[in-house]
Amino acid sequence: EIVLTQSPATLSLSPGERATLSCRASQSVSSYLAWYQQKPGQAPRLLIYDASNRATGIPVRFSGSGSGTDFTLTISSLEPEDFAVYYCQQCSHWPTFGQGTRLEIK
Amino acid sequence: QVLLQESGPGLVKPSETLSLTCAVSGNSIGSDYYWGWIRQPPRKGLEWIGSIYHSGSTYYNPSLKSRVTMSVDTSKNQFSLKLSSVTAADTAVYYCARSTVTSRDYFDYWGQGTLVTVSS
Lengths: 106, 120
Description:
Chain A has about 110 residues and is an all-beta fold. Chain A contains no helices and 11 strands. In chain A, the strands form 2 sheets. In chain A, strands 2, 4, 5, 6, 9, 10 and 11 form a 7-stranded mixed β-sheet that branches. In chain A, strands 1-3-8-7 form a 4-stranded antiparallel β-sheet, with no helix packed on it. Chain B is mainly β and about 120 residues long. Chains A and B meet through strand 5 and strand 10 of A and strand 10 of B.
């Protein structure tokens, strides 16, 4: 099983600030990594796939980077609706998810 | 517009079998996508359970494989999940989802989720 470790567990920022979320894999997943956003009571929403490709309808302020074992999700300027939990997911082997990063309003 | 809707009992007794169905609208289940189940225990993260293709081809999470059966009904445009010998650890919100066109393992459309509680 490939284990994904996300950091930090919680990130406290203000609207307008830049957010940087990390995801580290226990072994290389090449670029087979996605990012999801989940708000309370809602299903996850696909943001980024294959490490750096934005899914349909996702704002350009969301960007992904990385390959191998280290990946980053960047939100360039936080909007109020961006405060949520973010999960990374790999599909190099059978799919696994990270434990999530909670992005909260400071 | 692609819509997925989970249905099934919200309460299952320990040792029994959990059964859920996902009805799909706005997309033929016979098209070139995989259809998956993902669950989320209360206040915890996401766990992929397994995925199925319209041909009936399946692949499952190895940690659940011995207890999972998935099936597809193209005539009803729906697919199903059975999880046997459930325990309290199987209590979770269960989501059905559609894979992306580029990968069977990324999911771009999700149902709203259904909470299944395992308790006597």
